[in-house]
Amino acid sequence: MHESRTFIVVGSVLILLALILFVQPQYLANPQVLGAIIVAQVLLLSFCKYKESFFVVLMAAFLWAGISLPLGNSWLQGRWIVLAAGALAGLAIYMRDGNHRFSLIHLLAFSCVLSAVVSASVSAYPQEALLKALSLFLLFLYGATGARLAVPLLDPERFFRKLLLGCEVITYLTAIAYFLMRWPFFGNPNSLGAVMGIVVVPVILWGFLCAESVMTKRRTGLALCVALMLLMSSYARAGIAGAMASCLLVCIALRQYRFVVGGIAASVAIAALTFMFAPLPSGMVADASSESITSLFLYKGKPGQDLMGSRRGPWDQAVAVIKDHPWFGSGFGTSVTEHSATYFELTRTRFVDSRMIREHGNSYLAIAEWSGLIGVLPFYLLIGTTASNAKKALMRLRRDGNIFSPAVPAAAIIVAGLIDAGFEDWLFAVGYYLTVFVWAMAFILSDLLHSSAVTHCDETAVVITDPQFATLAAVQFQ
Predict the structure, then answer these.
(1) Tens digits of residue pLDDT in 245-283
(2) Which residue of 188, 190, 323, 476 is most buried, as measured by CB atoms within 10 A?
């Protein structure tokens, strides 16, 4: 019945589009109209298979808008349409299910939206701040509904197996683009480091640890080495630190101490190979190749600077703004820049170009500057709850050693993301593709931990609170 209904809806829309193009054939000569029609069709098809496909469509839209690909500028506006449509559709589908559940993390998320709206009223750019608060609302609405639907209730591991495959494909495509074609399509080297360090390396490591055959272990091992080389070639210290800490915590929780030693040795060897053969990012100084490997990775070829020299200036400026606007901040998503108050008045009626938002070098300082010491409280509580969920997943791994649990890669992504956010200010920048992905993963992890199937394995104890999970548990613990 559901498939026939889907066929009728899709067929009706296609017939309608054909009639419009027949009556107005000039639309066929307009690239923007054709592009909009194609996007509408893709969205319609993804809605028909919302649980299976919309998450991929959403991430593709945000990724396309954030990297150097044709029509990327069109997706700067189109991604918000995709997010809004997905959030509303996800809410309708999720609330139709009688088993829907909301918990503390969802309450905190929407408290953050309320705080963002309040702080927008004191911004020099109130319209821009309100739009950014709206985008935060749409992100959290999708995360609380649509993102949770993307993970099958009875087989959540299937979602992460597909994610693992996607990470392997991205790894090889990125390696070809960067190492062979010399095409840095991620733009800033820090973006390459963030993608590899927060998502790709932790997920592929999980795939390597839970590989059940020699061929799978070899395949994921090779992909892991290539991903590590891409990560090292970015010289992004935040991404490298996030990936290393995340992978280390997973291995320690799994009691794989020998693998930790081997992994550290392999990482050092890969870093040395990257230093010798991989091209330097465009942001590095011209004579950086004459520096030592330690100088390149720790100081980016500028040993005369402080280790945190590139971050200290933005940090000090953020602290100064917090002191000047302690209670309600500078407005969500907007910052006090070097422009005068006269400039603010002249541009008050226009939207602010995102390039005018200065760098903070720390997501936690950025949100404190935007929302003030009063408004930042729900944001910090949300971050703390997310970190606590990641800790619970790793502690559960420590107890039962179940590396196949889908909570493991989700927790690894969260740990890497929260560490990276301490040196980059993307955590609440909704337009960034990693922001959408990491917060969706935070809501997914909450569901995985609070699932009605409690499989606490402490030597011999296995508690199943819902009979529908009995078969899965029996297979898992045979």
Answers:
(1) 999 999 999 999 999 999 999 999 998 888 887 777 765
(2) 190
